[in-house]
Amino acid sequence: MSGDFNIVGRSVVRQDAYAKVTGQAKFADDYKFPGMLFGVMVRTDVSHALIHSIDYSGLLDYPEVTVCDINDIRGSRKVGVVTADQPVFCYEKIVTPGDVICMLVGADESQLKLLTAKVKTELEELPLITDPEKALDPDATFIHPDKKSNLIVHYPLRKGDVEKGFHESKHVIEQKYTTPLIEHAYLEPEAVTAVPIEGRGGVRIIGSIQNPHTTRRIVAEVLNFPLTKVRVVQAELGGAFGGKDDLMNIISARAAIAAIKTRRPVKVRYTREESVVESYKRHPYIMKYKVGFNDDGIIKAMKIDILADGGAYASMSPFVTWRTVVQATGPYEIENVHTDVRAVYTNNPYTGAMRGFGSPQPIFAQESLMDEIAEIIGVSPYEIRKINGVKPGSITASGHKLRDHDVNLLSVLERAERETNFTERHKECSRSANTKFQTSQKFRGSGFILKKDEMLDNRDIIKKGIGLAVSLRGCSLGAEGIDAAAAYLSVQKDGSAYLISGLAENGQGLRTTFSIIAAEVLGISPEHIYYLEQDTGIIADSGPTVASRSTIMGGSAVKNAAEIIKKRFEEMLLTYWNIKSKDQLLFKNNRVYEQSRSISFSELCSLAYSKGLNMSAIGWFKGPSVHWDEEKGQGAAYFTYVYGCQVAEVSANLLTGEIFVDRIVAVHDPGKIINLMGAKGQVFGGVTQGAGYALWEGITTYNGNIRENNFDQILIPTSKDIGEIESIFLEGEDIYGAWGAKSLGEPTLELTAAAIANAVKNATGLRYFNLPLNPEEILLSRKLSPNDLSRGSTN
Amino acid sequence: MKRDIELFSTWKLDEALELLEDGNSHVIAGGTDIIPGIHINSNRFRDFNKLVDISRIKELKRISEEKDKIIIGAATTFSEIESDEILQRHLPLLVKAVSKIGSRQIRNRATIGGNFINNAPCADSVPPLLVYNAGIKINSIHHERMINLEDFLISPYRTSLTNEEIVTEIVIHKPRESLNDVFYKLGRRRGVAISRITLAILFEIKNNKFTDFKIASGAVTPIGKRFYEIENYADGKKIDRDLLIDISIRCGKAVLESTGLRWSSEYKLPVLQRLIYSLLEDNCLRR
């Protein structure tokens, strides 16, 4: 079958492209309903406090305004994916500035915003915990007193004997790395409308929702409704990157409470500032690595201690940090590993899922470390990875033997080396690194007014560097949870077809990818497939659209559905054409061929319809079983993996500390490519987002409050800020996925910051340990920020 | 935040001036400062309930060349400035500076008058206008006055403009074509960046000596600022490495004196001095 595709592997324009570019696409805030009210959140100005009372008497003069708070909740007062610690409306404590105590509901949204000041609260402020390293101190206040600890989760992983490994090592080095808090920066802020279903009860939710089935579960829990009475429809989504999950579920629940209470449709839509203050972020990590190795480059032992700031709520921390513990050693076969990953509660903005999901942080640390090891023993970054990188049959840190797929780590590495002439250029750049810059950095901060000999010669300002990073990534959820997906395909009598999967379009191009898969099986054009609106009422729960799992999980389900229907057509044709074997039947170019005769697909469907053939099917794919031993951190964590290598070429400006990314070469093995244009789009987007992580992005807080609350201060890269991005795909074979199509979304992002950091070291001669590598970090090796929340343009 | 604001739009300057007479109105041209300012409920844009749109008034968008001066209508957008041949020939420093402001969309709306009337420390058009010794014409229903831009700018976000007035023109005496110019902008990124350091330098070299050396900064000083003492110091001096270093360090000292220490000084001050040296070395030493 492979190599002989109609559409798979070609570039197909996304189904939603035209509507989005021309502004016709209907996003969550574009929905309007007769009699619709608005909901506006009321927050406090504290980061940590006990709530003694909430006084609504200031609203007595406004009978048109309805208040929704804890007293309106008939079901769960607190929700959460793993731990139910997040109140829909706060009633005991405020634990972070985004917290909401109630929602005002009325017809005039602007009036409601003014009225938020009329809600008075009696609060008792509590000591703040903003430093995750102090969260587990014996005298630390518990953020959630009922948990009796600020520890969200602790994952140990033990393989072999690290002390023995260090003992057998000639070199042992230790380093500490940190990464910042990151805002997803989706273009569309949160928006949702809850509409009461007339007559039958229940509620319909339409919103900017990443995982409609998760939203449905949370809303049903809060309303104390059966799942079937909450119907969640996804509007066109203006970006998520993992960020339209927990908070959207909670906002949807608030809107639903208000819709039930007022019997009117209620819309909630956030401003950018509200979105930034209340939405969860990517975890900041503090990572301590100790590694032992010998002159041959072989790593004998690695000891890792990682602390993740979970912020005020557990959210996805238990899953995010689990991926970290599985992948913390990187794609290397290491005999002795001792890893501890902990996530803790603080009063900072809470952290959860974001593209990468616990991998960009350790990859930055471990890939920086690999370059350091290479330097110590005098081999190239390429060589050190070749020595230690996983090969077919290798055993991962969690004791999982890699097989049943092409273990392509060394292939992507070699391809990247060849494509960029890496080793030679790396040597060349490190030779020309500016020793004066490195020396002068030792005197950093000695004075504000320079001495005469501290000027830089113009020839010494721009330095070039090249760096690489590699990764292995477990596909889909792994041992996080149940892993299965559904797809529904319904072919119509004119040859067109409806398709939907339980996984949702998040902007990644899923609808197009799934349409291609179904079209390929049936030999028709993807344009003949109409992808249905995402609606929990018409398709089975397929788990969340996360973990780069859509193509591998949903794609397999779609293929399954299409194959069921194709088989029925084939059986019908055996009788109709009076032939014995299906082998000669060929579904191609909107026709079905059998030797010299053929029938158009639409005629075939019309015929099938007249014969009462069932042309609809539900396809299903359940991931193979995986397992995890919680105590030792051992097991076959994921059922398959993908591999990637990115090379970054940078220009470092030693005068200003600016880093410009001249070029990124991204070599990935995502398995079989379904839509080449979609795959390239993932690379361009992921690499750019990864470059943002490397060089600019980072939310800073002051007593838990976010300083950067809009895009004038949250700096994500623009198209001018990054040079050429080149994508190269090595399509490894796999027994899973549609024709072996696996994952690409997150691998494209997770490597970039590490590759850039290594290129910066190559250019400057200095290693940096704390992302982002912004100009201050490059020149001063630290971050600068105001000592308060002031917003000035003199930054 | 809800706020009822009336918007008046007119094609006639007289009408606009009449509308402003009551003193409770605010002029809007491109709106790229005012609209976001209202959105975040900035205290700078709270005390009016009437906006007078001057962006359609033709005479405020005219660029003209007279015998010895260039006149730019105050409501001329940055995009219009960027593409204007008169300005490209006579005021290249201004063209370079405005082409780096914000994004194309912002430059299509934002106006040069709005840029300095807002008087943000990072207003990119200010340093070039200062080294060009720009003057501005201001009108109200009752009077007309001319003032040097430098005197007009008082302190961050404050100017001598009253509520009844409109800045109508920017008037610049044609600089000699033999002048060399350097503009530099440092932002946190390349696209849509707020300036962290801007430098505008004009100079002429005769017999390897500076004549007419002019330098102004933005973003590192509370408002755009000329460094007259340094200009006087440089003029007539023989150009060599030591002089350039000297000028750079003097600028660093002048900025430190004007701003005091800030959280960003540890980064900005050394970078500023090295930048000035680098720009001068690049433009003066190798000629």
Provide a brief overview of the structure.
The complex is a heterodimer of chains A (795) and B (287). Chain A has 795 residues and is an alpha+beta fold.
Give structural attributes.
heterodimer, A: 795 residues, alpha+beta, Aldehyde Oxidoreductase, domain 4, 7-stranded mixed beta sheet, 5-stranded mixed beta sheet, 19 helices, 30 strands, 27% helix, globular, B: 287 residues, 5-stranded antiparallel beta sheet, 4-stranded antiparallel beta sheet
Describe the structure.
The complex is a heterodimer of chains A (795) and B (287). Chain A has 4 domains: 2-24 and 484-622, Aldehyde oxidase/xanthine dehydrogenase, molybdopterin binding domain (Aldehyde Oxidoreductase, domain 4), CATH 3.30.365.10; 31-126 and 190-269, 2-Layer Sandwich (Aldehyde Oxidoreductase, domain 4), CATH 3.30.365.10; 134-183 and 288-345, Aldehyde Oxidoreductase, domain 4 (2-Layer Sandwich), CATH 3.30.365; 360-476 and 639-780, Aldehyde oxidase/xanthine dehydrogenase, molybdopterin binding domain (Aldehyde Oxidoreductase, domain 4), CATH 3.30.365.10. Chain A is built from 19 helices and 30 strands. In chain A, a hairpin with a 6-residue loop joins β4 and β5 (86-87). Chain A has a 7-stranded mixed β-sheet, with helices on both faces. A 5-stranded mixed β-sheet of chain A has the order 9-17-16-15-10. Chain A has a 4-stranded mixed β-sheet with strand order 18-26-27-30, with helices on both faces. Chain A starts with 16 loop residues before the first helix and ends in a 15-residue tail after the last helix. In chain A, α4 (212-223) packs across α5 (246-262) and α16 packs across α18 (752-764). The longest helix of chain A has 27 residues, at 550-576. Chain A has 795 residues and is of the alpha+beta class. With 287 residues, chain B is of the alpha+beta class. Helices cover 36% and strands 26% of the residues of chain B. Chain B contains 12 helices and 14 strands. In chain B, strands 4-5-10-6-7 form a 5-stranded antiparallel β-sheet. A 4-stranded antiparallel β-sheet of chain B has the order 11-12-13-14, sandwiched between helices. The model of chain B has no long low-confidence stretch (mean pLDDT 95). The A-B interface holds A 108, 110-111, 113-114, 273, 445, 448-450, 452, 454-458, 461, 655-658, 660, 696, 710, 712, 715, 717-721, 774-776, 779-780, 784-787, 792-795 and B 1-2, 36, 40, 103, 120-122, 186, 188-192, 194, 196, 219-220, 222, 242, 245, 248-249, 252-253, 256, 261-267, 269-271, 273-275, 277-278, 281-282.
